[in-house]
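Input.
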Amino acid sequence: MEDYEIIELYNSRSERAILETEKKYGNYCHTISFNILQNKQDVDECVNDTYLKIWNSIPPACPLNLKAYIGRIIRNVSLDLIQRKNAIKRGKGRYQVVYDELDYALSSNGQADLVERLELRDALNSFLASLTPECRNVFIGRYWYFDSISTISSKMNFSQSKTKMILMQCRNKLKQFLKKEGYDL
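Output.
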């Protein structure tokens, strides 16, 4: 079933929308969530929460890219769960390692307002567009999908050392790019 048909099912409040979403994007959701949580029960919970969030948000939302919309929701739901589970002891989990890798490139000067976040989003999109497709896929695999080095290496048919080198070069390029764009790092 095409994405626009699934969205139309949501708009007409048909429960079949969830079944079609599960059929088309279930594996996608499970993969993203498992890369973050590493626990099947937590993943199942997050996937179900994601379907509920989609149900509650369409309508009024009408996503132009349903896959990206679902991916963002499952990622955020999974990160929220791991944050709640680790509220007492911050810094647990693989996701923190991924964020630590980017920490030196992205400064955190407190809560940024909406305009600054939108400007940063646009800058990051420009940065990603400037990368070769190979580098962009490695970067997104690591920092969006939370893929492990070995998973990225396997997908890209690279050695792990090459994958690590590409990530290091991308982080360095990101830091230089953000400085050039005027972000105080």
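The two ends are 46 Å apart (CA to CA).
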